[in-house]
Request: fold
Amino acid sequence: MPSFRKTLLSLALASVSSFAQEDPEPVDDLDWLSDLIFAEDEAELGVEEELAELAELEEMIQSMVDWTQEASLAAGFGWKNNVLLEETGGVDAAFLETEFDYLAFKPALGHRLETTIMVYGEIRWFDGIDGLDTENLFLAQASVGRRLGDRWKLSTGMEAVHTVQAYDRSAQEFEIDAARIRFREPGLVVSLERSLMSNGLAGIQTRYSRADYDIPGEAYDTLGSEAFYKLDAGRFGTFKIAASMERENYEQRLSRSARGERLDRALDLDLREWGLQWEHSREQGFWRGGKTQLLFRDESETEGSFYGRGEWSLRQKAVFHFGAWELSVEARLGEVDYDRRPAVLGQDDTRKDDSFRWSFDLSRRLSPKARLFLRGSGDDKDSNANGLSYRGESVMLGVSLFQGL
Reply:
C-alpha cells in the first residue's frame, strides 16, 4: 500500500475514531506518528476491515448496474433509379428493405470493464433485375474499456464489415449484366484516451484490418493510427480535430505507372487524412442541431503513380423538429484529383471526379415506440474519364419500431 495513501487513510480514520470514542486513552504523539509512517500493510494500520467492507460495497453497486440495451426494426418499400450506377442506359427497380439495429452498454465502476456492443444490418430485395436479387450491409463492433486512474482510459475491441453490392459487369454500353460483389473486413482496434482540463479529450487509436473481395487478387491488409482532440464547448457545441495515417498492403494487385502499365511489385498505398468537425444539438426549438465536417485525404504509392490522388469533402447535416415531426437533411460535396493518372490514355489531362450527395429523413411519431418515415437520397458523380459518371436517386417509405430491453 503506497505510503502517501496510507497516511491519508490513517489520518481520516484517526479523525473519525477520535470523535467516536467517549474516553480516548492518551496516545504518545511520537509513537503514533511512527506507527503511521512505518506501517507495512493494512493490518498494521488496523483498517483491513474497513477496506474489505469498501470492496464489498463496490461489488454490490457493480452488481446493481445492469446492461442498457436498445433494439430497433424497420421495414419499408421504395424505388431506386439507376441501380447499377451506369453513365448511360441505367435500370430502375422497386425494392423492399429491412433494417435492424442493436446496442448494448454496461458502464464500469472503479476498475471494472466498460462494455459496448453494436450491431447494424440492412437487406434490400430488388424486383425485375436479372442477375440481382439482394444487396446487404452488416456492421458489428464490440469493445471493452478500463479506467486507468481519474483521467486515462484504455480500450480494445473488434469490428467487422460485410457488404454485398450490385454492379454492371457487361463490356458493352447497350448491355446490362447485373452482378454482385462481396466485401468483408474484420479488424482489431486499440485506443488510449485522456481527459483534459476545460472539458477536453485527447486520444490515439491503432487499427489493423483484413479486407477481402470475392474477386481474386484484391485482398489487402491495413495498419493505421489516428490522433484526435475533442472539446465540449457547452452551448456552443462540440469541436473535434483529427489526423490519421494508414498503409494498405495488397497481396497480388500490382503497382502501376501513370499510363497504367503494371510494375513487378505488389501495391502498397499510404493514406493520410486530416479532419475538422463541429457538432451541435438542442433540446428545444425548431432547429435541433447539426454537424459540419471537412476532410482532406491524400493517397500515394511506395512505387508507381497510377493510384496517387488527393481528395477533399465537405459534409453538412441539419435536424429540424416541429410537433410530432422531425426532418433530417444532409449534403456532401467532394472532389478527387489524381496526381498523374490520365483521364484518357494518350492525353495529358489527369483524371478528376466531382461528386455531390444528398439525403433526407422525414419521420413522425406514431407512438412512444413507433414512427413512420420517408427517406430519400441521391448521388451525382461527374468524371472526365469515360464511363465513370453517373446519377441515381432513391426513395423509401416505411415504419420503424424500437424497444429498450
Summary: Residues 1-24 have pLDDT under 50 and may be disordered. Helices lie at 3-20, 29-38, 42-45, 48-64. The chain has two domains: 3-54, 68-404.
